[in-house]
Design brief:
It holds the Pfam family NmrA. InterPro entries: NAD(P)-bd_dom_sf, NmrA-like, NmrA-type/Isoflavone_red_sf, PCBER-like. It comes from Phialocephala subalpina. Keywords: NADP, Oxidoreductase. Helices cover 41% and strands 15% of the residues. It has 325 residues and is of the alpha/beta class. The longest helix has 19 residues, at 257-275. It has a 5-stranded parallel beta sheet with strand order 3-2-1-4-5, with helices on both faces. The protein has a 3-stranded parallel beta sheet with strand order 6-10-13.
Length: 325
């Protein structure tokens, strides 16, 4: 049987790297990485070639004909473009439909959340709507929240090397909201299985590594490290007020990237801890398939295993080379 031809956008990013690694390991796919012209000379892109990945230099906001030609013959498009640039996928969706792509996996890879709660999720919905309107085959994949952004710092500073700069991980409300979580390194393992499975065509699927409350996360950090953590609980009202303030400021300054990131992270907190959207029960009621039920042999890292890696110095800091815009 010939290998499925997969085009991956964002192969050098956090999510994209995880997906690429798993696709390469399975050796079942012919992989092309779509790279924008301004990044063609980056060392990360050169490194892709060394891994045997074909490179396609293309501007996804460029002329439609060029994109259609480039996508002709591709079976699956996976986009891991990054939350700041996700609306640029619109042109790619149109081109994929015209080129006869069989399945489009847009850049979701986030927590489970209904429409109307988070700006980030609502933009993703616009992409979903366009895909469905065009009748393009799809799978929408969510993964919960990354372990790599969910751990509090240890007082000894042993885990600071892996912390995203400025990351604060207080507890929210009573600390009892449970959340779907995942190790970034496992995202690709789920994606590689999902795109090779007819059962997931035109479906929502979520992959996950653990389901935990913030209190449980703090407990595990203490248990594995032997250190004692201070617990600061942020009241729900404080998060809601913060969102209101940030949204007002953002309305007056829509191009301000800092404000956009502020709104996005506060809305994540509202969805995960105040509304408690990011749960298996909610995923089920929103119509998601559970990838752990589809692939029971797949054994993602538990949060406790991740903390073991963390204290052993084996975790990579997210966005170590800076965030892509
Ligand atoms: N679940 C979670 O906890 C969580 C956390 C963070 C993000 N996410 C989600 O994960 C998804 C992927 O985000 P990420 O943070 O992994 O991405 P990322 O690390 O920021 O990487 C983005 C990738 O897209 C490429 N890219 C950006 N703009 C492009 C353009 N116009 N044309 C072509 N390539 C472009 C970048 O390449 P160059 O810049 O080198 O060109 C890079 O390879 C997003 O949907 C985001 O919402 C989820």
């Amino acid at each position: 049987m010939s290998k499925q031809k997969v085009l991956l956008l964002g192969a050098t990013g956090e999510t994209g790297t995880s997906i690429l690694n798993s696709l390469l390991t399975l050796n079942k796919f012919e992989i092309t990485a779509l790279v924008r012209p301004s990044s063609a000379e980056k060392p990360d892109v050169q490194a892709l070639t060394e891994k045997g990945v074909k490179i396609l230099i293309a501007d996804i906001s460029g002329p439609a004909e060029e994109l259609i030609n480039a996508l002709t013959g591709i079976d699956v498009v996976i986009s891991a473009i990054g939350g700041m640039a996700q609306m640029a996928q619109m042109g790619l969706v149109e081109a994929a439909k015209k080129a006869g792509v069989k399945r489009f996996v847009p850049c979701d890879f986030a927590s489970v959340c209904p429409v109307g709660v988070m700006m980030l999720r609502d933009e993703k919905e616009e992409i979903h709507t366009q895909i469905k309107k065009l009748g393009l085959g799809y799978t929408f994949i969510d993964v919960g929240y990354w372990y790599q952004l969910s751990f509090p710092p240890l007082p000894s500073g042993r885990t600071s090397y892996a912390m995203f700069p400025g990351m604060q991980v207080p507890l929210h409300g009573d600390g009892e909201a449970k959340n779907i979580l995942i190790d970034i390194r496992d995202i690709g393992h789920f994606v590689a299985r999902i795109i090779d499975d007819e059962r997931t065509l035109n479906k929502y699927v979520y992959g996950w590594g653990d389901i935990l409350t913030e209190n449980q996360i703090y407990d595990m950090m203490e248990e594995v490290s032997g250190e004692k953590l201070e617990r600061v609980y942020v009241p729900d009202e404080e998060v809601v007020a913060q969102e209101k303030q940030l949204l007002q400021a953002f309305e007056n300054d829509k191009t301000n990237v800092r404000l956009r990131i502020g709104v996005m992270s506060t809305q994540y907190a509202i969805s995960k801890y105040v509304r408690r959207d990011n749960t298996p029960e909610n995923a089920k009621s929103l119509g998601y398939l559970d990838a752990r039920e589809l692939y029971p042999d797949l054994k993602p890292k538990s949060f406790k295993e991740f903390v073991g890696d963390l204290v052993d110095g084996k975790v990579q800091r997210p966005y170590a080379k800076g965030m892509s815009m």
